[in-house]
Design brief:
heterotetramer; A alpha/beta (about 400); B mainly alpha (about 400); C alpha/beta (about 500); D mainly alpha (about 425); B: about 400 residues; mainly alpha; globular; D: about 425 residues; 2 domains; 3-stranded mixed β-sheet; 16 helices; 5 strands
Chain lengths: ~400, ~400, ~500, ~425
């Protein structure tokens, strides 16, 4: 009897906690159903679509025949604040727009062993559109796409693997180049920094473009802005934290270390490992800024870092995943194409200047605009990062 | 040293009239009464399922949201969630040919790594380094699988042996350090795990393994001749790795209980000073045990690189195997046959867990919880006895290791 | 005003350690509790002291029932115990050990070191114990450690003091000093229970002797009238031969020769500091000495288990100084190790496995790397019969055997082959009288068959009884050498204390 | 004297004691190290290139402190000192200085290495030292947890799980009910897991290693499950307020020491207070004396009227609470967010630090600082950009731990009753 009472007490506490949080949460889930899988605060519900993404937004009035969607993450899990999270957010957007049936299946992988059974599970559950997230799933996707030609597939961060597979790839170094130029233009110390989680192409492509952008600035303006953490000539030796877990003190230490060397504009690449850097900038009282990656940081990141974002290098995983599903639902599947997101097609871009808008001079803004245009037109080009399988 | 905490003075105990069926049975630790062998694990499993059900219910957020308005319906939802989860867990583990294939496939590396940890325990060493040894062994096998051109009949054995050597070196390193410098294997194996993981990350980006022209850290496809052949065709993942695992079980059984070196391992495990007295070379034994243990982990690495479709390798092929291996070695009481059964159990739970995740939204993490609960109930028979009010087992508590053995 | 145990029964799995035992002691009285190893003396006292809880029976102090199974209650009631294995923390100082449990403290539990030292000094001075409160327990001699134990008891105002085999680790002279202390305690009005298996000591010190056998009280004896033979018969239940029967030795050639051997202990102290001696064929040489004077390290070094720092060891003229234990064993050396449970046996192994513990690697027990357990089992069965090991089967864990039978397993294993040299360390420690007799007989047999025998024992009686020649070790050196036939306890005892000792 | 003896009398066989041998080996290692420093950093640094070590941060009161040194000169000087130390070791004098010499040698080696890496440039020495402190906090707290338990004879291999679970509790409770609730919850969670460890090992005689492993599993499984099933859904439960740094007035303005020690969150101060408290507690108070006696010789403690079980329960629970404190640091002070398996093995490194630190509180600090320092150096070196692949630099701290444990510590003496169940009849 006594024991039951204790169990009941635990239940009661749980109910209380959920009730306390439930209200705010309920709102979020009803009004912007699924759209903000990674937001943590109501303050961010205001979904301003960024400049670069404007032209790509799909109208919700389209006529869809909702498809059953299944989403398989790689071993980082859905909660990675990176490509898995963005892809899943895209799926939920597709649900909201009516392109995907409600309650899409989410399968989180714990290891490479899980990929095949998860894909098989998707098929067994009758999924019509399977989104596989990350290059680690490429070979599995290729194999099953071939044997299941009726199913439509979308793979994130990899090229198309067959007539029924839409590959989503991103030439993010194009936008990062512009962001590097911008950072070099606003730095007051003449030093900018970048670091990543681990040295893999989806991470280092940002750092590479960024460093090249800074170099371009130096070349054009005869300046000598220094980049810490990445040298395009020595891509093995970039500064990495070794973890994507922002709570590991090494992340804070890495950022602080760069701040100590005088960096004031920072580009941390990988999940939420930019947050400790924001903390470091704030607690040091440095007049510095962060460059966000993937989804617009102003929306994706906690409010306390709001005034730190210079710009975000956007990678349109969320929107492109949504569009890939929508194309399928509209009867025109985009399979067989590798959608290499770049500045030209708008799937990669720079966000608005948010908090640092006033700090960016009109000339600099114009120069950045021009650089974006020049990259699009091919007037500025360089030995770009090879994306995907090559 | 003075005696601490010894029970009754052994001098006051007469010869115990316990009788077993033969010398071998006793030496090998088998031949326990069937009831004891089955009852306790069964009760442990039942308890783990009960606690798991409780956890599923408590974490059912949607049901809790309904709790205020319609408590009964919410409770029904919760129970339904438990039912669906467990049904799918079972179906995913045993419900079809595919499920059985998945169970056996998933068990394969678990059994091998579990044997690795068990061998260590038997010799009084705690090998937490299965993860690192899987990495190194797997990479050795991968290299052979990519670059050595041989017919399958030779290619697979060569690759597998390479994996054993690679894993063995990585494990033996920890053993050697312990033997020569006294550095504790718990520390060194953990550190070597990190080193191996970072090394894997790096080496997969080099031309040694990468496909030409590729930039992503993923190996080229392994040559057909090195892939572990599947048993029931390519639609099922189960491959000859399971036979390797079963062969390893018998091999480890033979090593531990029929060979002279196994006698030495066990003697050193129970009493290093007695084995020194008996003229055994304890320093050599530490290295040998860790080499063997590492070689077994290396085998698990081989099945992860040579036997895992789509036969290209990315950085985290060791997964949680090294971690699970500790629990299942404990569950199997460090006996090869025990490891076999607990490996199959864990394989079933994990394979079923994948299906459960899809159908019931309960992630495979529940399986980790259940694994730990099963281990604890097995290790604390008194606890089970108290809960079920039965005389579950007369088992003496298992003493796995003897402190830090400085 | 008495301490009274009534009807104490204590069962361990498979054995009744105490069976309805009653006992009483009055203030100012010394009771000797006599019995063989395994008779249940220690168990009884541990119950009295609250370390074990009895299955039946009660303890009364001054007519009041004592709460059992808790040492604190016993201590509070005025019972103190000096354990056979000292209950001292080696890495603590004397004062820390003494005040443990009743620390004088200042604010925040800060230990008042001066007060603690003063407590030790006061008792030390009152009973003339000469103990330095600041020395580390692991650094002081065993005899002094025992005095620390006595101080611990006295600081707690014990009125009844139990001594469990207190003389086992003392030299004869120290025994005399110890008895003086005990008599002092008696005059101080303390009730003393003196546990021993040594008849002469019981007769010397006790006011009353109670004999235990197989867990039962088998009677009382008056020390003024009882004889050693009577007591021995009460203890064992049959007439015993107290003397080891052995013929005269006719020493042959030198088998073991030790030259200036220096050995370090685990803490790198020179525990064996230049030892030289020889043992000849057909000769038993006994090394006497208080425990901790280097005997352990000497034996370990002789048998290859511990490297030596300097000097040489020859066996049959072969320099085996840096040989491995196995190589030395193969030469024909039988080694009975000091601590059978620590290094002589693997307790979790079966009798059969232990029987082949140091010969498993060769025929007939193995071929190549494959063990032949059938051969091992058969051979073990033969040895069990031959050496009178009492066990139901050879496939039970050796931990199920009694101490005496465990020791016989080792003796059987070591003696069942061509033995050139026997090195036996504490061969009968913690073993019942029957087994002692048996093991002694076997050792003398080995001598008579031509082996050289080296006995190391802290039991002076054992060394005196077995040896043809006696060496005394003190602080890592040979402090005296005596002829076995002519040596007296007094002169050997003096040498054990480091004073006197003649090289005749 | 027999004939054999006389024959060998002249041939005095004296082997070196282990200490002497170690001294020689250390000496040789140091000489090799010195030669390497001379060759790689002395000759390897360009002539006349200054390395500028900055000694102040942007936040400091006293700005622009720095130490400028010629990299080549410094390296050669260091090389000479290290070789000198090595020769001194080879002579086998003053054996107690062996470890100290080794420590000095490696410290100087690091200095020369950094000077070489920074030659012609600059880097923030004080920032690196600050990072060292920050990176060692969890390791030290983990080591103190282990120490609390092992000092009373219970091996706690579940530190990792205790850290993880209490980080979870800290984040969730802090999100739901505020920071205080989060902190209290973390301490309680750590304590409860300590209680579980004690209960299983003492009451049910479960092998201590098994119990610890189970705690790791339980914590990982439960927190991951709840993250997946609750936190991803109810995100407000994973958004606590971050606990920010408290700059201690005046002390924080001390050059070098200020930013290193006095501008952290209260967790860091808590760690130091705990450290000092534990040191004095263990060795000067009744609590410590009793605890240690239980870990060294439980039966002796029992006969002295000390309740062995109670002492074990109490200390293991307290140890768990230290881990709880560490978990709260992880969960609340960096990003204030829970991530699955966010401890990532740091608890095991704490365990290693406890052994390396020889079961002493300040030993644990030293070991933690060695690990933190090697991580900080690794990060700094990678920023200076000397072309070593990042993965190899990331391995460095773990290799340092192996080298240190194998080379410097050797065999250690744990509490005598460590890992042994105490069973009363």
């Amino acid at each position: 009897m006594k024991r039951q009472m204790r169990f009941f007490a635990i239940f009661a506490v749980f109910a209380l906690v959920l009730a306390a949080c439930g209200d705010g949460e309920g709102e979020a889930t009803t009004t912007t159903e699924g759209a903000e899988a990674t937001t943590t605060s109501e303050a961010m519900d205001d979904t301003t679509t960024s400049e670069a993404m404007d032209d790509t937004t799909t109208t919700e009035a389209m006529d869809f025949e909702a498809v059953k969607v299944c989403f398989v993450t790689d071993d980082a899990g859905v909660d990675d604040r990176s490509f898995n999270a963005s892809g899943w957010a895209g799926v939920q957007d597709a649900v909201a727009s009516g392109a995907a049936q409600p309650d899409p299946i989410l399968l989180e992988s714990a290891s490479a062993e899980d990929y095949q059974p998860h894909v098989e599970t998707c098929l067994a559950q009758g999924a019509e559109h399977i989104v596989t997230s990350g290059f680690k799933l490429a070979d599995t996707t290729a194999a099953f796409a071939e044997t299941n030609p009726d199913v439509q597939w979308t793979i994130i961060d990899f090229g198309s693997l067959g007539p029924n597979v839409t590959g989503l790839e991103y030439q993010t170094d194009e936008a990062a180049f512009a962001a590097g130029y911008l950072a070099a233009g606003v730095t007051q110390t003449g030093i900018v920094g970048t670091y990543g989680g681990v040295n893999i192409p989806t991470v280092s492509i940002f750092m590479d473009g960024f460093a090249r952008g800074v170099a371009h600035y130096n070349e054009v303006n005869g300046a000598s802005v220094q980049v810490l953490g990445w040298d395009p000539a020595d891509p093995d030796a970039g500064v990495m934290t070794g973890v994507f877990d922002p709570a590991d003190p090494i992340v804070t230490a890495t950022c602080e270390s760069m701040l100590d060397e005088g960096a004031d504009i920072m580009l941390p690449v990988g999940g939420a490992i930019n947050l400790p850097c924001g903390t470091a900038i704030q607690s040091r009282g440095i007049d510095g800024a962060l460059v966000g990656v993937d989804a617009d940081a102003v929306e994706a990141m906690p409010a306390e870092y709001m005034d730190l974002w210079l710009v975000t290098i956007e990678k349109g995983i969320q929107i492109q995943t949504q569009r890939s599903i929508e194309a399928h639902a509209a009867g025109e599947p985009s399979g067989g194409t590798s959608l290499v997101g770049n500045l030209e097609n708008g799937a990669v871009g720079l966000s608005e200047y948010h908090a640092w808008e006033d700090r960016v001079s009109d000339e600099l803004a114009a120069e950045v605009e021009q650089i974006l245009e020049d990259i699009k037109s091919g007037a500025i080009t360089w030995d770009k990062f090879v994306v995907g399988a090559g | 040293m003075t005696d601490q905490g010894t029970q009754s003075p052994p001098d006051e105990r007469p010869p115990n009239g316990r009788s077993f069926d033969g010398v071998m049975d006793r030496i090998a630790g088998i031949g326990e009464p069937i009831r004891r062998a089955l009852l306790l694990p069964t009760l442990a499993l039942v308890l783990a399922l009960v606690v798991g059900a409780f956890i599923i219910m408590v974490t059912d957020v949607d049901a809790w949201r309904r709790m205020g308005d319609e408590p009964l319906a919410a409770l029904g939802d919760m129970l339904d969630g438990v039912w669906v989860a467990y049904r799918e867990l079972f179906i995913g583990a045993f419900g079809s040919v595919r499920a059985l294939s998945e169970t056996l496939f998933t068990s394969t590396p678990l059994i091998l790594a579990g044997l690795a940890v068990a061998v260590g325990f038997r010799a009084g060493l705690f090998n937490i380094g299965a993860r690192g040894q899987i990495f190194v062994g797997g990479l050795f096998a991968l290299w052979v699988g990519l670059h050595v051109d041989l017919p399958a009949i030779l290619h697979i054995p060569v690759a597998v042996i390479a994996a054993m050597i690679g894993g063995g070196i990585w494990g033996g390193l920890a053993g050697l350090l312990k033997a020569r410098t006294g550095a504790h294997e718990v520390i060194t194996t953990i550190m070597l795990n990190f080193v191996a993981a970072f090394f894997t990350l790096w080496v997969l980006k080099t031309s040694v393994f990468q496909e030409e022209g590729s930039t992503i850290p993923k190996s080229a496809p392994i040559l057909e001749s090195a892939r572990l052949p599947t048993i029931f065709g390519s639609q099922y993942r189960i491959n000859i790795g399971i036979f390797i695992a079963i062969a390893a079980v018998f091999f480890v059984y033979w090593i531990l209980f029929r060979s002279t070196i196994g006698f030495e391992f066990r003697a050193a495990g129970f009493s290093p000073s007695a084995s020194l007295y008996a003229g055994m070379n304890v320093a050599f034994l530490y290295t040998a045990v860790m080499f063997l243990s590492g070689a077994l982990s290396g085998l698990a690495g081989a099945t992860q690189t040579l036997g895992l479709p789509p036969y290209t390798v990315t950085d985290n092929f060791a997964g949680n195997i090294g971690f699970d291996a500790i629990a299942l070695a404990l569950l199997g009481r460090s006996h090869p046959f025990g490891v076999l059964w607990s490996g199959l159990l864990f394989g079933a739970l994990i394979a079923g867990g994948r299906v459960m995740q899809a159908a019931a939204g309960v992630t495979v993490d529940l399986v980790i919880v259940m694994q730990s609960l099963i281990v604890i109930f097995i290790a604390a028979p008194e606890l089970v006895r108290a809960i079920f009010k039965v005389k579950a087992a007369e088992a003496e508590p298992t003493q796995v290791t003897t402190g830090w053995g400085a | 005003m008495t301490l009274e145990l009534r009807g104490i029964t204590k069962r361990f799995p498979g054995v009744v350690a105490n069976d309805d035992v009653s006992l009483s002691v009055a203030p100012g009285e010394i009771i000797a509790l006599l019995g063989e190893n395994g008779a249940g003396k220690t168990t009884l006292m541990n119950i009295l002291f609250g370390l074990y809880s009895p299955d039946e029976g009660e303890v009364l102090i001054d007519g009041k029932q004592l709460e059992l199974s808790n040492p604190s209650a016993s201590i509070a009631a005025g019972v103190g115990m000096v354990h056979q294995h000292f209950m001292l923390v080696p890495v603590f100082t004397v004062a820390e050990n003494v005040v443990l449990g009743l620390e004088p403290t200042e604010a925040l539990g800060w230990i008042d070191k001066d007060a603690a030292d003063a407590m030790v000094r006061e008792i030390s001075d009152r009973y003339n114990l000469a103990v330095d409160p600041d020395s580390m327990v692991e650094d002081i001699p065993v005899g002094v450690q025992q005095r620390v134990e006595i101080i611990k008891v006295l600081v707690r105002n014990a009125r009844y003091i139990i001594f469990d085999e207190p003389t086992a680790v003392l030299t004869p002279q120290e025994v005399e000093e110890f008895f003086a202390i005990v008599r002092g305690l008696k005059e101080d009005g303390k009730g003393v229970i003196f546990i021993s298996h040594k008849l002469n000591e019981a007769l010397e010190i006790a006011d009353r002797i109670v004999v235990l056998r197989d867990g039962k009280s088998v009677g009382e004896a008056n020390p003024k009238t009882a004889t050693e033979n009577q007591l021995a018969e009460m203890m064992v239940g049959r007439p015993v031969e107290l003397e080891v029967q052995k013929g005269l030795a006719e020493p042959g050639k030198v088998v073991l020769s030790v030259e200036n051997l220096v050995v370090l202990d685990d803490r790198d102290h020179r525990t064996v500091d230049g030892v030289t001696f020889q043992v000849r064929a057909n000769e038993v040489v006994g090394i006497a000495g208080v425990q901790g004077n280097g005997q352990t390290e000497l034996v370990e070094s002789l048998t290859g288990m511990r490297p030596s720092l300097a000097g040489h060891v020859f066996v049959d003229g072969v320099d085996v100084t840096e040989w491995s234990p196995r190589a030395i064993h193969k030469l024909g050396i039988a080694h009975i190790p000091e601590d059978r449970q620590e290094s002589g046996l693997v307790l979790q192994f079966t009798v059969a496995e232990n029987m082949v513990l140091d010969s498993y690697y060769d025929r007939p027990y193995s071929r190549g790397i494959q063990m032949d357990w059938d051969v091992a089992a058969h051979s073990s069965e033969r040895l069990v019969d031959e050496y009178d090991v009492k066990t139901s089967r050879v496939d039970v864990p050796v931990s199920d055997l009694s101490g005496g039978n465990q020791q016989k397993v080792i003796v059987a294993r070591e003696f069942d082959r061509d033995v050139k040299l026997v090195v036996a360390s504490q061969p009968t420690r913690g073993v019942d009288v029957g087994s002692i007799e048996y093991i002694h007989k076997r050792i003398i047999e080995q001598r008579d068959e031509g082996a050289a025998v080296l006995i190391v024992s802290s039991e002076l009686d054992e060394v005196m009884a077995l040896s043809d020649r006696i060496l005394v070790m003190f602080k890592g050196r040979i402090a005296g050498e005596f002829e076995g036939a002519t040596a007296t306890t007094t002169e050997v005892g003096l040498a054990m204390l480091g004073s006197g000792g003649s090289h005749d | 004297m027999t004939a054999t003896a006389e024959l060998f009398e002249t041939e005095a066989r004296v082997r070196a004691t282990p200490e002497e041998r170690r001294s020689t080996i250390v000496g040789i290692v140091l000489i090799a190290l010195g030669v390497y420093v001379f060759w790689a950093f002395g000759l390897g640094s360009g002539a006349g290139l200054d390395a500028r070590f900055n000694l102040s941060l942007q936040t400091d009161r006293f700005q622009d402190l720095s130490w400028v040194v010629d990299a080549r000169t410094l390296s050669i000087l260091v090389a000479v000192i290290i070789v000198g130390l090595g020769i001194w070791r080879v002579t086998r004098s003053a054996l107690s200085w062996t470890n100290i010499s080794l420590a000095i040698g490696f410290g100087l080696f690091s200095l020369a290495f950094l000077a070489w890496a920074a030659a012609g440039g600059q880097f923030s020495l004080v920032g690196m030292l600050r990072s060292t402190v920050l990176l060692s906090v969890v390791v030290v707290l983990g080591a103190l947890t282990g120490l609390m338990c092992e000092r009373v004879g219970i091996i706690n291999i579940g530190i990792e799980g205790q850290l993880l679970a209490s980080a979870f509790a800290a984040v969730v409770l802090s999100s739901a009910f505020g920071t205080i609730a989060g902190l209290v919850g973390a301490l309680l969670t750590g304590g409860v897991l300590g209680l579980l460890l004690a209960w299983l090992t003492i009451r049910f005689h479960v092998d201590q290693i098994i119990a610890g492993v189970v705690i790791n599993f339980l914590a990982l499984g439960l927190t991951s499950l709840m993250t997946a099933r609750i936190l991803t859904d109810v995100q407000t439960l994973n958004a606590p307020e971050r606990i920010s740094a408290i700059r201690i007035p005046f002390l924080a303005d001390i050059p070098v020491l200020g930013p290193m020690l006095f501008d952290h969150s209260f967790f860091v101060y808590g760690m130091f207070i705990l450290l000092v408290g534990l040191h004095f507690g263990l060795f000067y108070t009744r609590w410590g004396l009793r605890s240690r006696s239980v870990g060294e010789h439980p039966k002796a403690a029992d006969t002295a009227g000390i309740n062995v079980y109670w002492v074990r329960y109490r200390n293991v629970v307290l140890g768990g609470m230290i881990a709880g404190f560490g978990g709260a640091f992880l969960g609340l002070s960096q990003v204030a967010r829970f991530e699955e398996n966010m401890t990532g093995g740091i608890g095991f490194i704490g365990l290693a630090a406890m052994i390396f630190g020889r079961w002493l509180p300040f030993g644990a600090l030293g070991a933690g600082l060695v690990f933190g320092f090697s991580r900080a150096v690794q990060q700094k070196v990678s920023i200076l950009g000397i072309g070593i692949p990042s993965e190899f630099l990331l391995m460095l701290p773990y290799i340092v731990v192996i080298v240190v444990v194998a080379g410097v510590v050797g065999k250690t003496r744990p509490p005598a009753a460590d890992g042994q169940p105490y069973i009363k009849q």
